[in-house]
């Protein structure tokens, strides 16, 4: 496979491990992927629940991110990123911590990070990669960054409708053939061409959402992608930071178990159905008192449950009080393997597909 270049950062493999929140992708998984030549990604979401050094969720989030970055750095010399959701109430704090800790790449989605370049100091080497789901969003953001900061995005992650977790699409778009990853990829290419021509610089496109094997990597790179983002596939590895019971839900899932949910944060999501989600649908859950105030868009006054707490419970294997987010291909997982074995499999699959 060809390498992935983002500014002065060069990853041996064109694979970005997607950031998975509330403790699913932390130091163990991110370092393992980086050691194999891909880009390992920490998720900043929910760190204030995993670290409880103080009585402040915001302060615990900062402490947690700083410690996770430093811990991961002791485990790898590879390229590391952090995924920070724009919709998080402490987005600015976490961006500042990531830059102070000299993280290689910030991936920012769940909203358009229109002011992200303002956080960079003159000597910062961190690369800024927005996550979008349309050519229109890529065009708007690139235009704003150039106008306000004279900064061209270092790359884009384009997430399609087959991704897991929160999705940047309306419900009626998720199964619409007009919104496939292939079509959106072509639209983003067209949207960025004028900027690339004007600045004589290629903006790498990293595609994610339903990318599962080496043949998928070959398929999208032949269509102009510079790399792929894979999250679901890395869950069923020994190094994934989630509890073994979390991984087992992927191994036990059938295709029909992968469902859409209406998230309290106001976005559709894709998850593995279970008794907890069935209770939500039946109305057995009631509005709760928000303990964290962690997501700006969360409709906490009407929400039947705290999604952050539900995802934390799942990460810890407590599915009576939670559920697992997952991509559309989660049901294809058959065993738990090491990250190295997975990467080796992807290389073989990719090589076979290119013949």
CATH superfamily of the largest domain: Aldolase class I
CATH architecture identity of the largest domain: Alpha-Beta Barrel
Widest sheet, order of strands = 3-11-10-8-7-6-5-4
Helical amount: 25-40%
Spatial gap, N to C terminus:
13 Å
Please characterize this protein's 3D structure.
Strand 5, helix 4 and strand 6 form a beta-alpha-beta unit. The two termini are 13 Å apart. Helix 1 (27-35) packs parallel to helix 3. The chain has an 8-stranded parallel beta sheet with strand order 3-11-10-8-7-6-5-4. Helix content is 36%, strand content 16%. The model has no long low-confidence stretch (mean pLDDT 93). With 355 residues, the chain is an alpha/beta fold. The longest helix is centred in the middle third of the chain and has 19 residues, at 181-199. The chain is built from 12 helices and 13 strands. It folds into 2 domains: 4-243 and 335-354, Aldolase class I (TIM Barrel, Alpha-Beta Barrel); 244-330, no CATH class. The chain is globular and about 55 Å long.
């Amino acid at each position: 496979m060809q390498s992935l270049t983002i500014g002065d950062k060069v990853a041996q493999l064109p694979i970005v491990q997607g950031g998975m929140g509330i403790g699913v992708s932390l130091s163990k998984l991110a370092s393992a992927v980086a050691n194999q030549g891909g880009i390992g990604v920490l998720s900043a979401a929910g760190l204030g629940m995993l670290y409880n050094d103080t009585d402040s969720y915001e302060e615990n989030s900062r402490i947690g991110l700083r410690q996770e970055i430093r811990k991961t750095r002791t485990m790898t010399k590879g390229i590391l990123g952090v995924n920070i959701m724009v919709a998080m109430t402490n987005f600015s704090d976490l961006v500042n911590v990531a830059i102070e800790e000299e993280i290689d790449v910030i991936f920012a989605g769940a909203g358009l990070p229109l002011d992200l370049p303002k956080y960079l100091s003159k000597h910062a080497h961190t690369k800024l990669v927005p996550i979008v789901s349309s050519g229109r969003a890529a065009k708007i953001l690139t235009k704003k960054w150039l106008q306000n900061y004279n900064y061209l995005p270092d790359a884009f992650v384009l997430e399609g409708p087959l991704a897991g977790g929160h999705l940047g699409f309306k419900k009626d778009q998720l199964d619409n053939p007009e919104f496939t990853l292939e079509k959106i990829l072509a639209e983003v290419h067209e949207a960025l061409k004028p900027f690339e021509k004007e600045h004589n610089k290629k903006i790498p496109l990293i595609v994610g959402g339903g990318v599962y094997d080496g043949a998928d990597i070959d398929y999208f790179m032949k269509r102009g992608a510079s790399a792929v983002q894979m999250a679901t596939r890395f869950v069923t590895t020994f190094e994934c930071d989630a509890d073994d019971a979390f991984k087992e839900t992927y191994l036990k899932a059938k295709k029909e178990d992968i469902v859409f949910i209406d998230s309290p944060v106001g976005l559709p999501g894709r998850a593995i159905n279970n008794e907890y989600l069935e209770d939500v649908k039946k109305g057995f859950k009631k509005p709760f008192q928000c303990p964290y105030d962690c997501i700006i868009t969360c409709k906490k006054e009407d929400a039947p449950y705290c999604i952050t707490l539900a995802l934390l419970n799942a990460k810890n294997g407590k599915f009576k009080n939670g559920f697992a987010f997952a991509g559309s291909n989660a049901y294809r997982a058959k065993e738990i393997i090491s990250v190295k074995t997975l990467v080796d499999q992807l290389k073989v699959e990719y090589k076979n597909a290119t013949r």
